[in-house]
Predict the 3D structure of the following.
Amino acid sequence: MSNTRKGILSVITMILYGCAQQSAPVVSLDIPLPEMITHHVVQEGETLYSIAWRYDLNVSTLVKNNRLSASTNIYPGQILNIEEEMKADFQKEVSSLQTKLPKDYPPSADSFNLERAKKSSEKLFKQQKVEADDTKGVGVLTNLKNEKASKQSSLKTVKNHWQWPVRGKLKAEFNVQNLQKGITIETVGRASVRATAPGKVVYAGDGLRGYGQLIIVKHNEILLSAYAQNEKILVYEGQAIDTMEIISKLGPSGILYFEIRKDGRPVDPLDYIN
């Protein structure tokens, strides 16, 4: 090897060694705010319930904010507004984080992000307060109390009739922090899946990524249940079903993924099934 080539290699080696010794500067430790999803474009086969399920939203709120009714037929290409629901959910997460942190946390960089979230939520709260003031009238408080009592009574009735969708072994428990929004049950291959409580089928298809062949059942205005990873669906949207009625068949793996949503939010199914 010539002296010239040796010299060039030596220089390159020294440059690389010097770079390796220097740590990359830390520009910022800020926690970026999540990108806010404001609209959803309806796809073929979707329903209001499957869209609400995708974003962990309450169907009633989704319907109200888009000036629809629960029986409205949506169509591919239709744009639905989900901004207000996403803001409310984000504020819940921020509030939960703030209550868990010590008083002297976060440092200034992270505090900046939380302050932005706080201002956004305060603006939303003021807007909601104005709207609430416009609707004040005789009987409003009474109606709210009656609605709450009706929901609680309906919830208690459904919980008393909840059954296991299949007999098998519990493979994974509910854990939202680990993105486990339901439970996974392992049973025999090709097993029949049964409705855990009476209700109406509001979605049946494979349009939600990660769920496979999915069935969503509405039990009342508060509670929904979902049966995922089916091989064959035996019910149709709009069908009324009874407790323990067969609604689907599993594949050869015998794995069923089961969720329950209360007001659009995932809850532990083991609190409901006996």
